[in-house]
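Appendix B, Record 12. Input sequence as logged:
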Amino acid sequence: MKIFEPLYDRVMIWSRHRHAPRYLAALSFAESSFFPIPPDVMLAPMAAARPREGLRLATLTTVFSVLGGLLGYVIGMLAYELVSPWVIEAGYGESLDLAQEWFAVWGVWVVLIAGFSPIPYKLFTITAGALAMPLLPFVIASLVGRGARFFAVGLLMAWLGPHADRHLRPYMERLGWLSVVLLVAIMAFLTLVD
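Logged structural output:
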């Protein structure tokens, strides 16, 4: 049963759509506050399909991700008690606890690190609001952490260009399952360390 190749093909079609940058902005915003799919899945093929726009697409993704993070911050600040049961019910309870522990240990630095963490970024934005983290350091750390991630993805794929598809497509199923296994292994490791 192939899952990742058809999904990859669909994303490649979407990445070439004339409204794709709008979809990327919406996905970037939503992922930082409530949506489960990271924007990398659109950013990477879009930057590969439009190499001259890689820098602009990475900027767009970063800006809307930080704006979405601000919504997550407000959700945490105003409605943490209301949304935390939903977060736990969605299977992110342990990750939410881990995010809170990381905040207690590293403070604002955890937001910067969260840009590369396997733990969904939205858990950090909501937790930052719930803990009343100072807003300016939150925004700066979000810009740096998320920006580093999205510029790395966007510029690498722009550099590889449209030919990246030809090299990636044959391995997409294996890469997809490898990503799932790595994510599960990292989460298991973090749970054991905890």
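The CA atoms of residues 3 and 74 lie 36 Å apart.
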